[in-house]
Amino acid sequence: MSKQQEFEVGIYTLADIGPDPLTGKTISAKQRMDEILKAAKLADEAGLNLFGVGEHHRLDYAVSSPAVVLSAIAQATEQIRLTSTTSVVSTLDPVRLFEDFATLDLISGGRAEIFAGRGAFIESFPLFGYSTDDYNELFNEHMELLLKLNENEVVTWNGKFRSPLRNAEIAPRPVQKQLPIWIGVGGTPSSAERAGKLGVGMALAILGGDPKRFKPLVDIYRQAGLDAGHNPEMLKVGVTGHTYIARTTEAAKDEYYPYYSNYWNYVNSQRGMGTRMSRAEFERLASPETALFVGSPEQIVEKILKQHELFGHTRFLAQIDIGGLPYHMVEKNIELLATEVVPMLKKALKQKKKEAKTPEFV
C-alpha cells in the first residue's frame, strides 16, 4: 500500500430483485431503486469511501444504467466516491460510457470512477447487436479505446467493432484530470495480466473459498504492470465480496443463511442449475479461513487483515444487499461496517504500518 493511499472501504449493489425467503414477497423495481438511493445516502453520512452500482439487462435486476443511478446518488450525497460495479464494457460503446461518467464526474464534483468488466450474464450481447463469438476481442478493443478517450480530448482511432474516430472531440471532460478506471477480475491469470499491462486498478471478486488462491493473480498483475513500465504506486488492488455483519458471528450466520442460500438458488437458476445451499455448506463457506465476510465486526476485520497480508490491497467493497435481504437489515450492516469495522480496521492498519517502520534491535 502506498504511503499516500488510505485504505478505502465502501459498499456496492447489483440491484438484484429476489423474493424474501422468509415472507415470499418480492419488492418492486421502484422500491428497490428507492432503497439503493437510501443506502447510498446512509453510506455517505456514515463516512464510507465508496458506493458502487452494477449493470444488468434483466427484469430481475433494477439497474441497467449505473451512470444514471449514480448521478441521482450524486445529488443526494456529498463526499462518497461513485463507481460502477461493473460496467459491461464488452457491449457498451466506449465513447458513450466515457461521456456518461465524465458527466457524472461534473455532477458529483469529481467523484466518479469506472469499474470495467465482462459481467456475469451475456444478455447484453444480443440486446446491443454483438456476438458472444467476439467475447474477448470486444473487451480488448473497447478497453483500449476507453483508455484512449480518458487520456485525450481529441481522438483519432480505428477498430473492428465500431465506426472510426477522426479528430473526434470527446466531451465533456471530467473534473478529475482522468477518470479512475479499474478492471474487475474473477479468477483468470490472463485477466490479471491484462489489467497490469493496461496500468489500471484491479478489483478482485472474491466470493468464497480460500483467498490464498487469488495471491498468484495479484503477483501476475503487479509483475505485468512493472514489465509494461507502469508506476507501481498506480497498480492498485481492491477486493469485493459478499458481506453480512451482526454483533456476534453466530447471529450473523443465523440471520444471513436464508438470504445467502436464496441468492445462490435464484442466481444458479438463472444459469440453468438451481441447486439449493445446505446449512452445512454455508457453515463451511463462512468459516474463519474463507473469503465470505460473515460474522461479528471483529471477524470481518480479521478476514480483511488476513487478505491485506496476502494482497496489500488498498480498498474493500462489501456487497451487503443480496438474496431479498430487507432494507432494515441492509441499514444495520452499513452502520456496523462504518461505526465498528472501519475504526478497528484503520487502527490495526495504522499499528501495522507503525511496526513496519520501527527498526528491530537485537
UniProtKB/TrEMBL annotation:
Signal peptide bounds: none
Keyword Oxidoreductase belongs to the record: yes
Source organism superkingdom: Bacteria
One Pfam assignment: Bac_luciferase
Domain Luciferase-like: 8-312
SUPFAM superfamilies cross-referenced by the UniProt entry: Bacterial luciferase-like
Record carries keyword Oxidoreductase: yes
Keywords associated with the record: Monooxygenase, Oxidoreductase
Transmembrane segments: none
Protein name: LLM class flavin-dependent oxidoreductase
